[in-house]
């Protein structure tokens, strides 16, 4: 079984030759550079190792350093490392108060330079490291690898714990790289860019590095903390330094997935290899795809809702729920497939992805991944969109979202649609312009409640589901049990039926709050808030429609206020203490629901998630309508009295 040998980093297995970091250091660096001055057959890996809370809290950076040093490197391969960004390092070698530069090569690990502490989320810090590495350790082929958290196209990567989790945005990355190397689409200066982080395999990242590197290796989804398997991929490079970035990228992907399988974190992993020299046609196809979507919306704003339903059913990454937070990243290819019947240009996107994404690996609950994600405004947040608009690839989708979220376009947007022969924008209808909030329900002869909205629902709703509540009027208590989409929808007529079966999700028989986070034909994913050994987490739970089985994939802590995704997928272990969480309010008042801890129990080898019959009592269901701007409307309630396995359904006019 794969191990993170933190202790080995401190042991005699590591022979450290710590150079004096003064005037003599520069001389030694110059000598090292002349010994490997970019000759044929040489490789350098520049590793930007921003430890953050992953290191201070779990020692994961130390563990990956230990993995690296299992490898014996030949004379023509150097790994140049900058450490920083963590309040504390889980070893006695790295000094958290400084930026330190190390070289691992055929002579072992050597400290070759130190700099005053600075944010690794600043472009100047990255540029200074890249300049140092290039000047002193050039090679015929160069890879730059980022290690840290990632947040997708908007938030970037390398969140520095010391400096308020400041991160490198894509424009900062590009400024740093282009200050050291001359960008060239025909002959990019770098062989490979890698992100051992979450959420950075995006079309925007590919665009940013398309004239800087030949290949990109990154993950669409959040990564587990075991991350890349350094002893395997660096070991393969050591055995065959003649390989190019494509071969190395495939090895990184395979090693990563094998490492995830060893520790059981493979179920929802992704990693892909993209040829950035072929990304131009994809960017053109993406722009055409966006322009066709914008044209459809300008013709009929109801298209926003139809496209939103396709996006909701497309594989998306990092959570994108109220409970977990929003990354607003969706698989580009899956969204194109889901909207192919609406947009003819979708096929060109799929063809271009097929050409530039050379290789990918992924788990069974990330089976729709095509290698690169793109931005979609799941949360309807204008500020988040504005952050994306300044750095994202292309123009069309930016105008599409601006029109969708605000109902208008600026002068440049109006000029853009004028080229498509549109001179004005029709009004965008949404839930705010309907009277559906508090809409009454009916019950048919089979005791099934239903909501009638009419055909216009197709033009307004991005999705519909329900919230389920336990109601105890005697004690004036209402408990929110969660959300789901287990209902029947007739979109042509705008009629929606409940499918209440008197069951709900549970952990080891303990009723649990569960929130739907992804729906597809093959499986649904849910977030289940819990306390794990006293800390707040969301269990990642899957329901497979083919096997009709539930599974717990692990636990994450979601997206924080900085847009940083939790990289640690925490697997449940025997002896862990779990506490379920519901949300409680009074049944008679208008107070907000607040978190409420319920059952505490110990994880065993047989701990599992499944459905149980709801305890006898009174329950209510509210149909939850959502539009493309993330506005919500809620129906009147339907009430279910559960007793002895029988259900009585009531609605009030």
Automatic annotation (TrEMBL):
- The signal sequence is 1-22
* Lineage of source species: Bacteria, Bacillati, Bacillota, Clostridia, Lachnospirales
**Highest taxon above the source species:** Bacteria
Per the UniProt entry, what species is this protein from, by scientific name? Laedolimicola ammoniilytica
Q: What is this protein called?
A: Clostripain-related cysteine peptidase
For this protein, the record's Pfam families field holds: Peptidase_C11
Which keywords has UniProt assigned to this entry?
Answer: Signal
Q: Which InterPro entries match?
A: Peptidase_C11
């Amino acid at each position: 079984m794969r191990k993170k040998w933190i202790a080995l980093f401190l042991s005699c297995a590591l022979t450290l030759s710590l150079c004096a970091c003064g005037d003599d250091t520069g001389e030694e660096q110059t000598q090292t550079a002349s010994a490997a001055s970019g000759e044929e057959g040489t490789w350098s890996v520049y590793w930007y190792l921003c430890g953050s809370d992953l290191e201070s809290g779990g020692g994961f950076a130390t563990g990956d350093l230990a993995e690296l040093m299992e490898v014996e490197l030949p004379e023509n391969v150097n790994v140049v490392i900058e450490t920083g960004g963590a309040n504390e390092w889980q070893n006695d070698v790295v000094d958290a108060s400084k930026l330190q530069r190390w070289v691992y090569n055929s002579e072992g690990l050597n400290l070759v330079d130190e700099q005053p502490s600075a944010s690794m989320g600043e472009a100047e810090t990255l540029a200074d490291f890249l300049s140092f590495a290039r000047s002193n350790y050039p090679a015929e082929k160069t890879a730059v690898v980022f290690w840290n958290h990632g947040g997708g196209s908007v938030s970037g990567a390398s969140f520095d714990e010391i400096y308020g989790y400041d991160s490198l945005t894509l424009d900062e990355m590009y400024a740093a790289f282009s200050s050291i190397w001359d960008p060239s689409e025909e002959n990019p200066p770098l062989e490979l860019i890698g992100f051992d982080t979450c959420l950075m395999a995006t079309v925007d990242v590919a665009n940013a590095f398309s004239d800087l590197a030949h290949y990109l290796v990154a993950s669409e989804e959040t990564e587990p903390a075991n991350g890349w398997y350094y002893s395997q991929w660096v070991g393969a490079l050591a055995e065959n330094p003649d390989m190019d970035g494509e071969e190395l990228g495939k090895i990184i992907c395979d090693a990563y997935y094998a490492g995830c399988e060893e520790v059981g974190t493979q179920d929802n992993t992704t990693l892909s290899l993209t040829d950035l020299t072929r990304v131009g046609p994809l960017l053109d196809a993406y722009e055409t795809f966006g322009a066709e979507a914008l044209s459809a919306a300008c013709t009929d704003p109801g298209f926003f809702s139809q496209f939103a339903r396709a996006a909701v059913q497309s594989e998306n990454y990092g959570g994108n729920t109220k409970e977990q937070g929003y990354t607003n990243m969706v698989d580009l290819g899956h969204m194109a497939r889901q909207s192919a019947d609406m947009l003819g240009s979708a096929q060109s996107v799929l063809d271009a992805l097929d050409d530039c994404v050379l290789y990918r690996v992924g788990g069974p609950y990330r089976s729709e991944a095509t290698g690169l994600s793109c931005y979609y405004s799941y949360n309807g947040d204008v500020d988040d969109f504005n952050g994306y608009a300044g750095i994202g690839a292309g123009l069309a989708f930016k105008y599409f979202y601006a029109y969708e979220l605000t109902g208008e376009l600026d002068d440049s947007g109006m000029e853009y649609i004028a080229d498509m022969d549109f001179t004005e924008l029709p009004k965008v209808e949404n839930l705010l312009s309907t009277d559906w909030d508090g809409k009454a329900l009916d019950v048919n002869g089979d005791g099934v409640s239903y909501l009638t909205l009419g055909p216009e629902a197709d033009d307004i709703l991005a999705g519909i589901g329900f919230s389920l509540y336990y109601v105890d009027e005697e004690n004036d208590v209402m408990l929110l049990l969660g959300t789901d989409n287990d209902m029947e929808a007739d979109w042509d007529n705008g009629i929606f039926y409940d499918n209440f079966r008197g069951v709900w999700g549970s952990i080891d028989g303990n009723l649990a709050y569960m929130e739907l986070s992804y729906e597809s034909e093959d499986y649904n994913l849910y977030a289940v808030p819990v306390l794990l050994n006293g800390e707040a987490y969301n269990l990642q739970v899957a329901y497979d429609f083919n096997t009709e089985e539930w599974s717990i994939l692990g636990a994450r802590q979601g997206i924080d206020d900085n847009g940083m995704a939790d990289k640690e997928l925490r697997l449940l272990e025997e002896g862990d203490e779990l506490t379920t969480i519901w949300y409680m309010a009074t049944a008679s008042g208008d107070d907000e629901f607040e978190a409420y801890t319920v059952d505490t129990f110990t994880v065993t080898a047989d701990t599992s998630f499944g459905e149980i019959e709801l305890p006898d009592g009174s329950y209510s269901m509210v149909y939850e309508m959502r539009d493309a701007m993330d506005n919500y409307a809620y129906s009147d309630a339907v009430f279910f009295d559960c007793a002895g396995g029988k259900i009585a359904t009531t609605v009030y006019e």
